[in-house]
Amino acid sequence: MNAILDAVSLALVLAGALLCLSAAVGLLRFRDVPTRLHAATKPQVLGFLLICVAIALSLRSWPVVAFLVAVVLIQLATAPLAAHMIGRQAYRNGTIDEPSLYVDELAQSRETPPAAGG
């Protein structure tokens, strides 16, 4: 049974490492902000999650699992928030290709600045 769990954890580490590598390549190769944000959040978080599951399977300890649950929850909470803030700032700076947007939900916020009160 230990050999099977070790093999599964090895496979999970390799899959997680490949996902994190693909996220890094996507950050370097993609040309615009939304696609880079997609590459930075989706495969990286999934790869991190797979690596954490592999660590939990490999060490087989409840304190380690409890610690990894907290780490994964923090990662799942901060990655989308950071991507949202970077995307919003890129929109405000004008570095997003606006004709490629299907829906522009922030168009009204451009007309009236948020601190203007009107």
TrEMBL record:
<keyword id="KW-0812">Transmembrane</keyword>
<feature type="transmembrane region" description="Helical">
    <location>
        <begin position="6"/>
        <end position="28"/>
    </location>
</feature>
<protein>
    <submittedName>
        <fullName>Monovalent cation/H(+) antiporter subunit G</fullName>
    </submittedName>
</protein>
<keyword id="KW-1133">Transmembrane helix</keyword>
<keyword id="KW-0472">Membrane</keyword>
<dbReference type="InterPro" id="IPR005133">
    <property type="entry name" value="PhaG_MnhG_YufB"/>
</dbReference>
<feature type="transmembrane region" description="Helical">
    <location>
        <begin position="40"/>
        <end position="59"/>
    </location>
</feature>
<feature type="transmembrane region" description="Helical">
    <location>
        <begin position="65"/>
        <end position="83"/>
    </location>
</feature>
<dbReference type="Pfam" id="PF03334">
    <property type="entry name" value="PhaG_MnhG_YufB"/>
</dbReference>
<comment type="similarity">
    <text>Belongs to the CPA3 antiporters (TC 2.A.63) subunit G family.</text>
</comment>
